Amino acid sequence: MTSVKEFRVDEPATADALGRGRFIFTDAYSVFDWGQMPDAIPRKGASLCAMGAFNFELLEDEGVPTHYRGVVDPGEAGAEAGSEPGASDGNEPEAVPLADATAPPTEMAIDLTQVPDLPYEGPEAGYDYDAFHAAGRDNYLVPLEVVFRNRVPVGSSLRRRADPADFGLDADSGPKADSGVTADEWPDEPVDLPEPIVEFSTKYEEQDRYLTREEADRIAGAADVDALESLAREVNRVVTERAEAAGFAHEDGKIECLYADGELRVADVVGTFDENRFSYGGRGISKEVVRQWYRANDPEWVEAVKEAKAAVAGRDIDDWRELCERDPDPLPAAVVEAVSEMYAAGTNAYTGRQWFDVPDIEAALDAVDDL
Predict the structure, then answer these.
(1) DSSP states of 318-364 as a string?
(2) Domain extents for the chain?
(3) How deeply is 246 buried, as exposed, middle or buried, from its count of CB atoms within 10 A (0-12, 13-18, 19+)?
(4) In this model, does residue 89 exceed pLDDT 70?
(5) How many other CB atoms are there within 10 angstroms of residue 279's CB atom?
C-alpha cells in the first residue's frame, strides 16, 4: 500500500512473468513526502483514477507501452472494497475501458512486476541497488522517477537547484529576454522553458534526491537510461497535447516504469493532479495548492519536516519521520471542500466527461483562490 493508493494482487509477478493486480485509489493525500495526512479529500481517489485511466488510454492509442489493463466499473466492484490491502478474494473483477464505466471508478487493473526490497546499509554504504537488481533480475519496477518539465512554476524544486541561465533563460540573450528573467534569479511567476527538460530522481529512498545521468544509469540496472528519457518525452508530448486541447497548460510531471523481458512500460499512474502540475487560465491546479496552504498556514510543521530531513543525514536510520518533532495540522473543512471540487472539476474538464456533479473548473478555482 502507498500513502494514497491501496494495492490488490490477483496473480503475483515472478522472475519470469508479469502478474496482475489493481490499484485502489483512496481519498488520502500526501505532501512533502510525509505519507498519509490527517484528512481525506472526498472525490480525490475517483478523480485520479479516471484521469489516470484516460491518459493511459491516450498513450496506448499512441503506441506507448504501459501496464494499464482497464478500470473496474464501480457497479461490478461489489464487496472488494472491504478486503485487506494486498489481498484478493480470488475473483478478479473484469477490467473495462474507461468509457464503459457507469460511474467514476476507483479501481484500476494493471500488470504487475516485481518490486524487490532496497536495503539501507547505513550512511557510508547507502542503499544497496546491487541487491535490488539481483532480486529483480529481468522483471522489476525501475527504482527511478523520470521527471519532465515544460515550465518552472512557483514552488518547483528546480528553482533551488539551478539558475535560469542553465536553461538558456537569460534576460540579455535568452528566449525570454523581455520577461524580466535574469541569468541567476527566478522571477515570482512561472517561466516557460525553451525546450522540455528531463531529470532523474530516486524512487525508493526515504528522501528523494535528484541524480546525475551516470547515477541514474547505474540505479536503473538493465533498463537503458536513454530509453527512459525517450519514453518520458513521449508521455510528456501526449499529455501536453491533451492538456492544451482541454484548455490546460501542462507544466511538469513524472513517470515510473517497469522493465520486463527487455521492454520498458509506463507504470504507476500518469498525468494526474498529483503526479503532474497543470494550470488553467494561468491558475495552478495540482497538489501544489495543498503544499502552498501548508507553507502559509502551518509553517512550523513544514520547517520541522525540513529539519528532520537534514538531521537524518549521517545516521544509521534512513526514516527522517522518526526525527520530526511535529505533526501536520488538519485542513479546515472549507479547504477540504475547495480542494475536493478542484480535483473533481479539473477531471471533468480534462477528460471531457461530467463524472462529478460539481461547479465548473472556473468556479472551483475561484474557491481555491479564496482560501
Answers:
(1) --GGGG----PPPPPHHHHHHHHHHHHHHHHHHHTS--S----HHHH
(2) 5-153+190-369
(3) middle
(4) no
(5) 19
5-39: per-residue pLDDT in tens?
898 999 999 988 999 999 999 999 999 989 999 99
Q: Which three cell numbers stand for residue 203?
A: 524512487
Q: 181-203: string of b/e by CB count within 10 Å (b at 16+)? A: bbeeebbeebbebeebbbbbbbb
Helix 288-297 / helix 333-351 crossing angle, nearest 10 deg: 160
For residue 342, give the amino acid letter. Answer: M
How far does Cα 172 stand from its chain's mean position? 35
Taking the alpha carbons of 129, 132, 135, 141 in that order, is the dihedral positive or negative? negative
Strand order in the sheet with 68-72: 5-11, 19-25, 107-112, 68-72
Question: Which pLDDT tens digit goes with each residue over 307-321?
Answer: 999 988 878 777 899
Mean pLDDT across the stretch 274-294? 92
Task: Give the confidence band of 173 by pLDDT, cuts at 50, 70, 90.
Answer: very low
CA 275 vs. chain centroid, Å, equals: 2
Cα 337–Cα 352–Cα 245 angle in degrees, nearest 5: 110
CA pair distance 200, 309, nearest whole angstrom: 20
- Cα separation, 44 vs 341, in Å, equals 9
**Model's pTM, two decimal places?**
0.89
- Annotation: CATH topology of 5-153+190-369: D-amino Acid Aminotransferase; Chain A, domain 1 (3.30.470)
Question: pLDDT tier at 219 (50, 70, 90 boundaries)?
Answer: very high
Helix, strand, or coil (residue 312): coil
Q: Which residue has the higher pLDDT, 207 or 151?
A: 151
What's the helix, strand, coil split of the chain in %, to 5?
35, 20, 45
3-state DSSP assignment of residue 292? helix
User: In sequence order, what DSSP letters do the residues of 36-62 get, joined into one string?
Assistant: S-S---TTHHHHHHHHHHHHHHHHHHT
Mean pLDDT of the chain: 90
**CA R_g for the chain:** 20
